[in-house]
Specification:
alpha+beta; OB fold (Dihydrolipoamide Acetyltransferase, E2P); 5-stranded mixed β-barrel; 1 helix
């Protein structure tokens, strides 16, 4: 026969496991297949400044019809500061922008010539 203390301990462990179940159910809605996820738009522009330490870049971009944005100069965050390596003011670039605010890919425009 099991003691009441042992039964209480087993019951407590079981309830603790149930309390964690919602935490184990993860949202996978952001896992998408394909080259460009929804909410990602491509743009072109010229770099005005790069702040690698802050993870930001200021770009004068061409009009972005998908966002209904005219040409303008604005700062953007980058998803990874390593994306800014080798980029300098005055470079023409192509970039992928997610959710209208974060650059997830950026390369010199001449790297895409002929593609």
């Amino acid at each position: 026969m099991k003691s009441p203390i042992a039964l209480a301990a087993i019951a407590a462990l079981g309830l603790a496991g149930l309390a964690q179940a919602p935490a184990l159910a993860q949202d996978h809605s952001d896992h998408r297949a394909g080259p460009a996820a929804p909410g990602v738009v491509s743009g072109t522009g010229v770099i005005k400044s790069v702040n690698a330490a802050g993870g930001t870049v200021v770009i004068t971009h061409d009009p972005m019809p998908a966002l209904k944005w005219p040409a303008m100069t604005m700062p953007f965050k980058v998803s990874d500061p390593a994306l800014l390596k080798g980029l300098k003011p005055g470079m023409k670039v192509v970039f992928d922008l997610k959710d209208k605010k974060t650059i997830v890919a950026i390369k010199p425009a001449d790297a895409h010539a002929g593609h």
